[in-house]
Amino acid sequence: MTWASVLTCTLTCTVVLCSGFTWPPDYAEQSRADVTTCVSYAQRTSPRFEAWVRGVDLVTGRVDIERSPRDDSRGARAFSRCLLAVRHWRLIERNLPKPTEPSMPELATMAGREPDSLTR
């Protein structure tokens, strides 16, 4: 295969895979709620901390967050960590299948002998 055909195939597959995906309509509302939650969390560390969502692009999933110029590094760090944890949970962990509880193991038996009863 030539480089041109490899490049064409790669670009075609990329366009096909990416063109059908858009973020759900409630993504913008969830993003705003997550920012509000993390701002209130950051304000416990730094009461002057302020941040808000300027806009959400549903095509790319980009959330534009503006922060107050007077906030300090402690509040910004608390906000960033909170937002990272909340978004990770919302976008990844909550969509994973729930773990199942392991079943009780069967009692061991010796060479075809019936297992001993615990009550006599």
Secondary structure: elements and pairs:
Elements (H helix, E strand, L loop, with lengths): L2 H17 L7 H19 L5 E6 L6 E5 L5 H19 L29
Antiparallel strand pairs: 1-2
Helix pairs in contact: 2-3
Summed up:
With 120 residues, this protein is mainly alpha-helical.
3D architecture notes:
Helix content is 46%, strand content 9%. The chain has three helices and two strands. Strands 1-2 form a two-stranded antiparallel ribbon. β1 (51-56) and β2 form a beta hairpin.
Comma- or semicolon-separated keywords:
single chain; 120 residues; mainly alpha; two-stranded antiparallel ribbon; 9% strand
The percent of residues in helical segments reads: 40-55%
The count of β-strands is: 2
Low-confidence stretches: none
Radius of gyration: 26 Å
Distance between the amino and carboxyl termini: 76 Å
Shape: elongated
Specify the biggest β-sheet. Answer: 2 strands, antiparallel
| Total of helices | 3
Strand portion: 5-15%
What integer is the average pLDDT? 76
Structure class: mainly alpha
